[in-house]
Amino acid sequence: MASRLNPYLMFAGDARQALQFYKEVFGGTLVLNTYGEAGQPDTSMTDKIMHGMLETPSNYTLMAADTPDGEHKPGNAYSVSLSGDDDTELRGYWEKLSDGATVAVPLDKQMWGDVFGMCTDRYGITWMINITQPQG
Questions:
Q1: Beta partners for 52?
Q2: Beta strand pairing call for 29-34 and 49-55
Q3: What's the farthest any 2 CA atoms get from each other in the chain?
């Protein structure tokens, strides 16, 4: 297998819901493993996600987990960026991700010539979509 880089997102208890939402957005195969399945004693974390992985038809991989109680430290030191030239595919992702989101930059043509948008989804994850425009 070739090396790959993918985001691994940490949540404070709603990783399952977030990953199911991302599966609705991107499609693909979602595998969820709970702390209980890994042998965690019966605690508030038993049914939480220890490791989740979504692999999409577009060869994206998104991983996520719930952090143990009290260890989640929200922040905005990261964003997930999707870029390419498939206008229909990327606009479809934008429509789904921006539904119920806080839109910082509406999806529109930008000064560098591409179509770009940025939003923070209902789970607090910031997404940037850049649709490369033909040079001409």
A1: 32, 64
A2: antiparallel
A3: 61
